[in-house]
Design a protein that fits this description.
The chain is of the alpha+beta class. 30% of the residues lie in helices and 25% in strands. Strands 1-2-3-4-5-7-6 form a seven-stranded mixed sheet, sandwiched between helices. The structure holds coenzyme A.
């Protein structure tokens, strides 16, 4: 189902990783056309949220060659879902499977935690957003009342001025 990269390894984040993550997120944000993500929206995830993910063991990093940290995924438990709050891969390391490996980690963790789904919000029209997730088994959420955290996330994003956002969900087979 996933393309494999022998030289990418996903592991739980450590405290030492945290300081590397804002720069990765900032570089990844540069992929977005300014019409989708105006510069003033491109703030990085607060360190406190990353530390919360570390404590909850819902923060993962992808390592490339030489154990360089090239990407990360921050999740949190929302109801019976593991929600992907942030996922980024360095642009010059993207498109080689690191994002897919991070998603696999979320699927494995959700199943291991006895959760019913993995959720996220994303841009519906960018090829490395909704279409990418759809190819990995995510579906658009039909009824937001089943996932109050997704309704809240979309609302907050709309207030920030983001458009063409969609909520998606993955269920274990
Ligand atoms: C989303 C993201 C984390 C994926 O990481 P990645 O390491 O590139 O993931 P993979 O290599 O496993 O797969 C990338 C997919 O996007 C597609 N893709 C990537 N760049 C693309 C581009 N410029 N045009 C078209 N498709 C593109 C690839 O075709 C691939 O899909 P496929 O294997 O089904 O064909 C990474 O693209 C990223 O950091 N993007 C910017 C930040 C972002 O969008 N975060 C997620 C917000 S919900």
């Amino acid at each position: 189902m996933f393309k494999r990269m022998t030289n990418v390894r996903v592991r739980s984040a450590t405290a030492e990783d945290i300081r590397l993550l804002p720069a990765i997120e900032q570089s990844a944000a540069e992929r977005f056309p300014p019409s989708d993500l105006p510069a003033h929206h491109a703030q990085t995830t607060p360190l406190e949220e990353l530390r919360q993910g570390l404590a909850a063991k819902t923060l993962w990093v992808a390592e490339g060659e030489g154990a360089q940290v090239i990407g990360f995924m921050l999740c949190r438990v929302e109801g019976s879902s593991l929600h992907i709050a942030e996922m980024d891969v360095l642009p010059d390391r993207a498109g080689r499977g690191a994002g897919s490996r991070l998603l696999e980690a979320a699927f494995v963790a959700a199943i291991g935690m006895g959760l019913r789904s993995v959720t996220l919000t994303t841009f519906e029209h960018l090829p490395w957003n909704a279409p990418f997730y759809a190819r990995r088994g995510f579906q658009p959420v039909a009824d937001l009342s089943d996932f109050p955290h997704l309704g809240a996330a979309l609302q907050a994003e709309a207030v920030m001025g983001l458009r063409r956002r969609v909520a998606m969900v993955w269920h274990p087979a």
